[in-house]
Amino acid sequence: MTIEKKLLGTNPVSGVILPEGVGFDSDDNVNTSSDLTSNTDSKTFTFSCWLYSNGSQMMPYYSLPTSGSAGSFNITMQGGGALTITSRASGSTSNNLYLYNPSVLMPIKTWSHVLVSIDMANLSGSKLYINDQAATFSTYPFTNTPLNFTNAVHKIGHQTTGRISNLFLDYTYRDLTVTANRRLFITADGKPSDTIPSNPIIYLPLKDAATAGSNSGTGGNFTGTYGLPSTASRGPNQDNCSASKFDGSNDYLSKTSGIGGSAVKVFTASVNIDRLSNKTVFDVRSEANGTLVQMYLDSSRINLYSTRGTSGTAVFHARLPLSAAPVGSHAHLDISVDLSDTSKRLWFVNGVDKSSSVTWVSYLNENFNPCGRANIATYTSNNNFYNGSIGEFYFNSVYTDLATDNPFWDSDTNLPNSVRKVIADTSVTPLIALPLIGSDAGNNLGSGGDFTVHSGPFTGARGMSEYRDSSWRRSETNASGSNVGYMYRDGTGFGLTAYNNNTATLVTTFLFHDLPTGGLGGNGDVSSNQQNIIRIGRSTDAAENMYLYYNKNYNSFRFGSRSGQNSRDVIQFERNNEATLSTGVWYTIMISYNSSNANTAWMYINRSGTNVMTDIMGTPTVTSDTTNWQATDDIIIGGATIGTHPSPPTSMEMSMLYMDTSYIDFSQEANREKFSDALGYPRDLTQQIEDGDVTNPLIYMKFDDSSNFGLNSGRGSNFTIQSTLLHGSDYIR
């Protein structure tokens, strides 16, 4: 069974937990058009909710009159992570409650839990907890008057870009300093509780999009839907890895003493990295004699290194080729060593044993003591700062037989486990277990004490338990200094028949390494101002093709096709005057058309800095010729065609490509959601294709097999790699 089927299938393998949660973009919500059944105003309430934000504003709950803001009540997570709760008295625009927590911010790019209980007559007893930790807050004001919950409209996910799950509201005050009261909503291991109090006014489990409005509370269902909420790709009910983004200049963690441990010949380490530069990942060392265990990256390899005392003699030094963790690509690294036995030196990457690829420069049967102090993302603090994300760091002075049972990797989902789950599953508390959640990166679940955060709080980073998108990228240069890598397929027998395809759908996610300069080009031909993404056509006639390229002169994406019968455009449209694209930023383009009708031509672009897809700008050019292009000879990914050779290939990365001669109406949000979720992450289409929800296309490139980038998961044949293609970075927003 494929990994995709394990994750998404209707009959998942044993042990796989399917996600529960609903994704909202800024235009989505579920709502009521009348007040909740038997609703009332109250001086007391308890609110609980799970949130996942990419850094944008979220408003999980909002009640308001039919017009104006007088009497409204809302709970909002600001774009910077601060939580606000605002109530306006009935018939008034003045606040009787404004709660603000500037000191403890909600983490981003991970599921987080917010729990608040308010008694307007008792400010000191009113409490806010974020991820089961007490958070301070300010109030302006806090007036001993009833809060106005009785409103005509109630909305969940209003003006929200993110995910929401398990939203609860009742009018009972609970002392949240009592652990048992918090366990009604969040378990000790950080999951949604199954012991929700009875008879709340609102309890929306928000398990999936189909049941998003189902209220298990007494207030009645939310029957209205605005936009199109979608089922989340990950839920708070699952084991979710965390990570922090380190800036490469000032961000690091330190523990100067007291980690514990003793002189040993064994250790186990595990960490998730998203490598953006060649620097130190971690440095764990003794307090007295300088003995250390250090992981650092240079231009060609990942190094694991230990010295003996102040002499600097290497007790061990291991080198893993950098191809195991390319720049920008997530890598989960598990290492376990027993210096008394050369058969016990294991190194796993993303659940796969890479020990045979490791070069051991030294391996001495000696004790070392690395467990007094430690740094994360720097070497001995203040130098060699790591630039990139680090998550779920685990270190302990024991040997773990990773080949027999790797507790750090879930073989059912092919994803890493969090350090919290590792501790729960093994019943072993290590010296260091840092989830590295952005807002609380120093929290050590191990026995060695918490770390000090320098230059934080850090920006949260997408954890590796999220779906990881692979990609290919072009080789930097060939021997003569020109970029030559691309993908090619002879169109003969591919399934593209000349002159009978007047519809098409194209979806791709990509980034550019550089942008072109020069004059005007068009129709997929080569010019110095354009970056060619894909071209399908005939090598004998450049006028017979379908193409997509970016033109820097006009900051435009142009898509079109030309017919060999009359050498003119069948259809051509573009988005003009786009904001200038940035290099190193991922973009998703969705295109579909029916050349018989200009009103059925669509181009949606997932713009940098926003997850809102917008409509086509300008009017498509459509001729009366509906016969379309001829594509019997060649298909080029990453270049245009002159004769049989792309010139020039495009310096780019691509994480997904879908192309078919059928038409998908992308004006319908439901169809766009099949390819990209509310946060802009591209979806794996495998199960949707198998279920018939998405057409099995001619071309579906996932680039998830680094040994075979040309593998076509669609119904067409595979592609041939021309020159060199390398593993690229993962899709990151």
Description:
- With 733 residues, the protein is mainly beta.
- The protein folds into three domains: 20-231, Sandwich (Jelly Rolls); 244-460, Jelly Rolls; 472-727, Jelly Rolls, CATH 2.60.120.200.
- 4% of the residues lie in helices and 37% in strands.
- Strands 1, 3, 8, 9, 10, 13, 14 and 16 form an eight-stranded antiparallel β-sheet that branches. The protein has an eight-stranded antiparallel β-sheet with strand order 11-7-6-5-4-12-2-15, with no helix packed on it. Strands 17, 19, 24, 25, 26, 29, 32 and 34 form an eight-stranded antiparallel β-sheet that branches.
- A hairpin with a 2-residue loop joins β38 (530-538) and β39.
- It is flat.
- The model is unreliable at 1-12, 476-481, 518-526, 607-632 and 640-646 (pLDDT under 50).
Outline the fold blueprint.
Elements: H1 3-8, E1 22-24, E2 29-32, E3 44-53, E4 58-64, E5 73-77, E6 83-88, E7 95-100, E8 111-119, E9 127-130, E10 133-135, E11 138-142, E12 153-156, E13 162-170, H2 179-182, E14 202-204, E15 224-226, E16 230-231, E17 244-247, E18 252-255, E19 266-275, E20 280-285, E21 292-297, E22 301-308, E23 313-321, E24 330-338, E25 345-349, E26 352-353, E27 359-363, E28 373-376, E29 387-396, E30 409-410, E31 415-416, H3 419-426, E32 432-434, E33 452-454, E34 459-460, E35 472-474, E36 486-490, E37 503-512, E38 530-538, E39 541-551, E40 556-563, E41 568-575, E42 587-594, E43 597-605, E44 621-622, E45 634-637, E46 652-660, H4 669-673, H5 686-691, E47 699-701, E48 720-722, E49 725-727
Antiparallel strand pairs: 1-13, 1-16, 2-12, 2-15, 3-8, 3-13, 4-5, 4-12, 5-6, 6-7, 7-11, 8-9, 9-10, 13-14, 17-29, 17-34, 18-28, 18-33, 19-24, 19-29, 20-21, 20-28, 21-22, 22-23, 23-27, 24-25, 25-26, 29-32, 30-31, 35-46, 35-49, 36-45, 36-48, 37-42, 37-46, 38-39, 38-45, 39-40, 40-41, 41-44, ...
